Each structure stands twice: as C-alpha cells, then as structure tokens.
Amino acid sequence: MITALVQFSLPAPLSVEQARAIFRGTAPRYLGMPGLVRKYYVLSEDGRTAGGVYLWQTRADAERVYTDEWRQFVRDKYGSAPQLSYFETPVLVDNATGQITADA
C-alpha cells in the first residue's frame, strides 16, 4: 500500500466549519475511485494549510489521479499548487475494525 500526503497553502485561513463545507463538496469525486482505500481531508490548526492523506492500493493507482489536470483543479479550487509526497505503508493498524494489515 501507498500513503500519499497532499498539502497546499490557503490564500486565507479557513475555520473547521468552512473547510468541512468545502471538503464535502469535493468528497463525492473520490467515492468508488479505483485503488483508493481511504482519504482523510486535513486542515492545519491555524487554518492556513489544507490537504489530504490518501491510502492507495498501489502507487500506480495514485499516479492515475495526480495528473496535471488534478493539480490544476487544486490550484483553481484552493489558490495554490499542491505538494505531494509518497510513503510506503507496509503495516496498517485499524482500530475501527480491530485488524492489522501487512502488505505482502
């Protein structure tokens, strides 16, 4: 599995309530997305940085989404270019299901 961390600066700070409303507007585009296991929308405590933490089945799944068009969507929607980092995710602890998953 691959974890992708996406961060971008915001032109003005957002409250949690504002961020929730904005993120709910984009969340449906990720439902049922091939290879996406889970996505967390994130907002920094000062409201100046936002982004997402994505868990993907493979890096290829992630790279199919993080295209130039996607980067432009983020720039248009949030006012700055996204910064993207990838991390191998060899073990996942899921307390909601009580499972530990190890990538084989």
Instruction: Please bin the fraction of helical residues.
Output: 25-40%
CATH architectural arrangement? 2-Layer Sandwich
Walk across the major sheet and give the strand order.
Answer: 2-3-1-4
Query: Helix and strand string, N-terminal first?
Result: EHEEHHEEE
Structural class: alpha+beta
CATH-assigned fold name: Alpha-Beta Plaits
Question: Topology of this protein?
Answer:
Blueprint: E1 2-9, H1 16-26, E2 36-43, E3 49-56, H2 59-65, H3 68-78, E4 83-88, E5 91-94, E6 99-102
Antiparallel strand pairs: 1-3, 1-4, 2-3, 5-6
Structural write-up:
- The chain has 104 residues and is an alpha+beta fold.
- It has a single domain, classed as Alpha-Beta Plaits (2-Layer Sandwich), CATH 3.30.70.100.
- It has three helices and six strands, in the order E-H-E-E-H-H-E-E-E.
- The strands form two sheets. A four-stranded antiparallel beta sheet has the order 2-3-1-4. The chain has a two-stranded antiparallel sheet with strand order 5-6.
- The chain is globular and about 40 Å long.
- The termini are close together.
Concise overview:
This protein is of the alpha+beta class and 104 residues long.
Attribute tags:
Alpha-Beta Plaits; 37% strand; 104 residues; globular
